Amino acid sequence: QVHLTESGGGFVQAGGSLRLTCVASGGTISNFGMGWLRQAPGEERKFVAASSWLSNNTFYHDSVKGRFTVARDNAKNTLYLEMNNLKPDDTAVYYCAAQMGIRLLRPEQYQYWGQGTQVTVSS
After folding, report:
1. CB 20 within 8 A of CB 71
2. H-type alpha helices, the chain
């Protein structure tokens, strides 16, 4: 099975930056649509950003567009999420996920999930 391991979360002040890293094993990410999703306390898991395996397209939730950048390095089997100008509302557990389909904006369509990494943004 595909195993995903996130890292790079932490504590940051509003306006700061973090880079999340997702390393895959047991599979090659070039065969999967790769996404970042997050879950804040008391809320459902939501789509943040994704990278299609069918094309070079990337997708972003409106709340992070222009601030976050998703990128993949297929040779390293690694997915990144560069987060800039972070806001307190970005506070959540961030998950790396993979799916074989094309519905990248739907959390329920992902088959493989990492354990998550906590991102906390203070005012």
Report:
1. no
2. none
